[in-house]
Amino acid sequence: MREITYIYGFVHFRSRRDLAQTAQIVADVLGIHLVPDAEGIYEEFPAYIGHALGLEVAVLGPPDDSALQEECQFSEVGVIQLRPAPGFGSYETRFKGDIDISANLEELLQTATDFEILPNRGPVFRHA
């Protein structure tokens, strides 16, 4: 059985731009390509998704549902979520330990002048 480290990260932020513009800024800063989540992977959250190095990067906007906004406590902010891409590894892969690169993501995004980095509250959405 092969063992690999689980890499993840979350950044909560407020942006002066709409979600499409924000996703483009994130894509430029991280050097990746992001596309709208046409499959609805993130359900109630409008999102842009990209993949690089076996990781999925998602830029989530606030949900349209006001009850969900209150539950998630982010009606006017967004979240960047990074995790292993769906299907990464195989049935013989096991994750051993993890590495949180949230601080690295925050540092990279400090260069984006239209962002205000907020205290990290972890993931707002989990999926298999």
Q: What's the CATH topology name?
A: TATA-Binding Protein
CATH class: Alpha Beta
Report the count of strand segments: 7
Percent range for β-strand residues: 35-45%
Please state the average pLDDT score: 77
User: How many separate structural domains?
Assistant: 1
Taken in chain order, the helices and strands follow as EHEEEHEEHE
Number of helices: 3
Helix-strand category: alpha+beta
- From the spread of the alpha carbons, the general shape counts as globular
Fraction in helix: 10-25%
- Alpha-carbon distance between the termini? 21 Å
Q: How can the largest sheet be summarized?
A: 7 strands, mixed
Query: In the CATH classification, which architecture applies?
Result: 2-Layer Sandwich
Rg over alpha carbons: 15 Å
Ranges with pLDDT <50 over ≥5 residues?
Answer: 71-76
Walk me through this protein's architecture.
The protein is of the alpha+beta class and 128 residues long. It has one domain (8-87, 99-114): TATA-Binding Protein. The protein has three helices and seven strands. Strands 1, 2, 3, 4, 5, 6 and 7 form a seven-stranded mixed β-sheet that branches. Strand 3 (47-52) and strand 4 (55-60) form a beta hairpin. Residues 71-76 have low confidence and may be disordered.
Furnish the topology, listing elements before pairings.
Blueprint: E1 2-15, H1 19-30, E2 35-36, E3 47-52, E4 55-60, H2 66-72, E5 78-84, E6 93-100, H3 102-109, E7 115-118
Parallel strand pairs: 1-6
Antiparallel strand pairs: 1-5, 1-7, 2-3, 3-4, 4-5
